[in-house]
Write a structure and sequence with these properties.
Helix 7 runs antiparallel to helix 13 and helix 13 packs antiparallel against helix 14. The longest helix has 18 residues. The chain is 31% helix and 23% strand. The N terminus is likely disordered. The strands form 5 sheets. Strands 16-10-14-13-18-19-17-20 form an 8-stranded antiparallel β-sheet. Strands 4, 5, 6, 7, 8 and 9 form a 6-stranded antiparallel β-sheet that branches. A two-stranded antiparallel sheet has the order 1-15. With 476 residues, it is of the alpha+beta class. The radius of gyration is 22 Å and the shape is globular. The protein binds flavin-adenine dinucleotide (FAD). The site of flavin-adenine dinucleotide has 29 residues, from helix 4, strand 9 and strand 19.
Length: 476
């Protein structure tokens, strides 16, 4: 820990200021849009369309080896920040790392900043991001004021609430690039302080932890600590923590989990902590939550030898993708005669009053730990047809990312299927960034097939982009 006595905002960094574009940014963006439109039109009908991006946070690897795609590198820029109006115009493929670098320089941040540095704004809006501000501020798409979208049928349209393309604006979240690609988005920002003051609260029963979440949702605080940020970690059914963060102008000390200490272990104690706002936003990225463990990075000797700049979620994700592509671990396990492992990498949302039931089911039948807990609720009354959440209802997102040995004779997706069924029984939903095993009928019942079909007809009538079921379940 480093002792600090300073007050005030982190200094504006020249690189961050440059990232916010300047006067030339909007004309350059317009010419990039025209070029992309031409490149899209040049793809022969019937050929698969995909984005050529350097990074991805999807956990479906089947598409990784597909041929060249649309070059969207021109869309990773913040085009304009208006500090007075607290808004930003942002390229659709801008990573949150670049976006927050630019906004923090103005003492501002997006209302929801997903935890992994290379998640992009367009990816979080079309694929549903969440984070520890989601109990207060909902999901990233709820603070989008308008979007410029290249539609599947090759038009570039502006989708905004109440406008001509209102249906596309509302149907874009959870469409995963199957209706079109967001090229720029205008988003709301909120002011930050230089530090976040964390308190970790321990619970010895999931029911008590869920009751505390319900209390925070009503009161906006816990034990007189303001809940600007709330998330949690379950190690076992009798060891759960909620971490409640409050914006703070001062920090009597501050921790740094990009070095020897590891953030997820810190929640076990001491019960109070301070981080700079940037370190808070990226607290989970350094160790990809806890998923850096298989690489040895959490062992002190390996950690010291592993360069700090490579302690990042995108580096680990690339290592996993390499392993999957070359089937290294699978071949090793087969040679050892070890049981087949199933990937159980999912985020699910459960109404808070059924959250304890989910944790008890998950511990008994899947048994992976830790589990990430993140409460959320829609920010307003507006609903989003492809991901039907109830306004006013508090949900808890449970995130679990690992592998489990399959029982003998079990079919592919044994655990994932059990999870899908239980999530539905408990009135919840499952995110679609990873593998899914739903039948077509069940999938369209859960993700509003009728409304999706209308949108597909209006914006991609010739089906140039894969449809949502083919993409998220069949992995096309
Ligand atoms: C281990 C793990 C943990 C995760 N935890 C969280 C979490 O806690 N919080 C959270 O918010 N998310 C989390 N995610 C999920 C992540 O937010 C989604 O996978 C998101 O869609 C990834 O966005 P990306 O920008 O990396 O896009 P990509 O991975 O490149 O693409 C994702 C999908 O979005 C589409 N897409 C990308 N850009 C655009 C665009 N501009 N317009 C339209 N469609 C587009 C792509 O076609 C693709 O279908 C997690 C994922 C993993 C693997």
């Amino acid at each position: 820990m480093t002792e600090v006595a300073d007050k005030g905002r982190p200094p504006a960094r020249p690189a961050a200021a440059a990232a916010a574009g300047g006067a030339a940014a909007l004309p350059a963006h317009q010419s990039a849009v025209a070029q992309l439109k031409r490149a899209y039109a040049a793809i022969p009908p019937g050929s698969p369309v995909r984005l050529a991006k350097r990074t991805s946070n999807l956990f479906r690897f089947r598409g990784d080896a597909a041929g060249p795609g649309l070059d969207v590198s021109a869309f990773d820029h913040v085009l304009r920040i208006d500090p007075a109006a607290r808004t930003a115009i942002v390229g659709g493929m801008t990573t949150y790392e670049h976006l927050t670098e630019a906004t923090l320089a103005h003492g501002l941040m997006p209302l929801v900043v997903p935890q992994l540095k290379t998640i992009t704004l367009g990816g979080a809006v079309s694929g549903l991001g969440i984070e520890s501000t989601s109990l207060r501020s909902g999901m990233p798409h709820e603070s989008v004021l308008e979007m410029e979208i290249l539609t599947g049928d090759g038009r570039v349209v502006t989708a905004a609430p109440g406008g001509e393309h209102d249906a596309l604006y509302r149907g874009f979240p959870n469409s995963y690039g199957t209706l079109g690609y967001a090229l720029s988005l205008t988003i709301e920002l909120e002011p930050v302080t230089p530090y976040v003051h964390l308190r970790h609260f321990r619970f010895s029963r999931p029911e008590d932890c869920m009751a505390a979440i319900a209390e925070i949702a009503l009161a906006g605080s816990y034990d007189r600590h303001r809940a600007d940020f709330v998330d949690g970690t379950m190690f076992s059914l009798d060891e759960l923590y909620l971490t409640v963060g409050a914006f703070s102008e001062v920090a009597p000390w501050r921790s740094d989990y990009t070095r020897e200490q590891i953030y997820y272990q810190s929640v076990r104690g001491p019960s109070e902590d301070f981080l700079t706002i940037a370190d808070y936003l990226w607290r989970w990225d350094t160790d990809w939550f806890w998923c850096s463990r298989p690489f040895g990075v959490q062992q002190p000797l390996v950690r010291r030898a592993w360069p700090r700049r490579y302690r990042r979620s995108d580096v680990y994700r690339r290592l996993v993708a390499f392993d999957r592509r070359h089937r290294l671990t699978a071949a090793l396990n087969a040679r050892r005669g070890a049981p087949r492992n199933e990937d159980v990498i999912q985020d699910v949302e459960i109404p808070v009053d059924r959250g304890a039931d989910f944790l008890r089911f998950f511990t008994a039948e899947v048994g992976m730990s830790p589990v990430w807990l993140c409460p959320l609720r829609l920010r307003g009354e507006r609903t989003w047809p492809l991901y039907p959440m109830q306004p006013g209802q508090v949900y808890v997102n449970f995130g679990f990312w690992g592998t489990v040995a399959q029982p003998p004779g079990a079919s592919d997706g044994h655990y994932n299927r059990r999870i899908e069924t239980t999530v539905s029984e408990l009135g919840g939903h499952k995110g679609l960034y990873s593998t899914s095993f739903y039948s077509q009928q069940e999938f369209w019942a859960r993700y509003n097939g009728p409304e999706y079909a209308v949108l597909k007809g209006d914006y991609d009538a010739d089906g140039r982009l894969a449809d949502l079921y083919d993409k998220c379940v069949r992995g096309q």
